[in-house]
Amino acid sequence: MAKKILICDDAAFMRMMIKDILGKNGYEVAGEAENGAIAVEKYAELKPDLVLMDITMPEMDGIQALKKIKEADAGATVIMCSAMGQQAMVIEAIQSGAKDFIVKPFQADRVVEAVKKVLG
Amino acid sequence: MNNEYYAGLDIFKLDVLQEVGNIGAGNSATALSKMLDAKINVTIPNVRVLAFDEISEALGGSNIVAMGVSIDLIDDMHGRLLQILQKSFVEKILNTFYQKQVEDLKLLDEMDQSVVAEVGNITTAAYANALSVLSGMRINITPPKQLTAEVGKLLHIPSAEIDEYGGKVLFIDVNFFIGEEEFRSNMILELDLKSLSFLFNNLGFN
User: What ipTM was reported for this prediction?
Assistant: First the structure.
């Protein structure tokens, strides 16, 4: 059975791009969220195998959403995907429970490599 | 106050701002190159301190319609980065991902706007990251706000970090080549007094 992934990004275009990359590599996109608050709701509803989480989003940013998801489910697997690649931010994300951090812009194989590493 | 501060900048501090522009433009071009999967050659950016009312002319005239992507800077530094994207560049960006003829920027659909906003987001973040590395300060950004309008109106895209409009700005003019085609992009950096002061202090200036 294909692994299910929740994509969280405020840009429709970015969600589409990631969905395309994942689909071509045999993963199923369980759902999409355009902000952190919806990400938290969808996580509870869909229980995906993995969350790909942008950081800069309205309503609730990706770091806050990551923390809330981890509070509800300590075993949640989240990979951050953001244009903000400053060291302090990467460290904060990892310390908050993210398994990896992909800096935008990314090549498709960086995404696939990161996903394969956590999901197989 | 902002006026006086920019007016009082000596040649060394202006040089620092030129370097901010250079590094930001370079990082931004690298990011753009990855996104468009294309080789991009950048000329040395032209970095100037301009008064608010000089900006429309610098952009080609107040009647020019362009897309503005505005991102606020928060955390250690406070201000706003406003990227101005003109029609030919927008068309080039869109056609990298799908075929699209752009007759009128105001008629772009939601997906088109999302593409440009995201490219603007990533290239602007490259400036913010460059500023962060250069200054040693932590700089975070807000989600992009986007507007398509005459350039005079783009300067008034609301920003929670800008107290008043009409001060001076750092105007970065970048010419670059994608293959044989030449494009122009502009970045406008507005920083509050405290941030400017902090930036120069962190770089060893008093």
Answer: 0.82
All residues at 6 or more sequence positions from A117 whose CB lies less than 8 Å from its CB, including other chains? A99, A100
- Nearest Cα of chain A lies from the Cα of B23 at a distance, in angstroms, of 15
Q: How far apart are CA B112 and CA A94, in angstroms?
A: 33
Residue A14 is nearest to which of B118, B126, B142, comparing CB atoms?
B118
Nearest to A12 among B111, B133, B139 (CB): B111
pTM score: 0.89
Close Cβ partners of B169 (under 8 Å, ≥ 6 residues apart):
B49, B50, B52, B55, B188, B189, B190
Contact A14 B126 (CB under 8 A): no
**How many beta-carbon contacts under 8 Å exist across A and B?**
55
The pLDDT tens digits for B127-150 are 998 888 888 888 999 999 999 999
The dihedral sign for the CA sequence B18, B161, B125, A96: positive
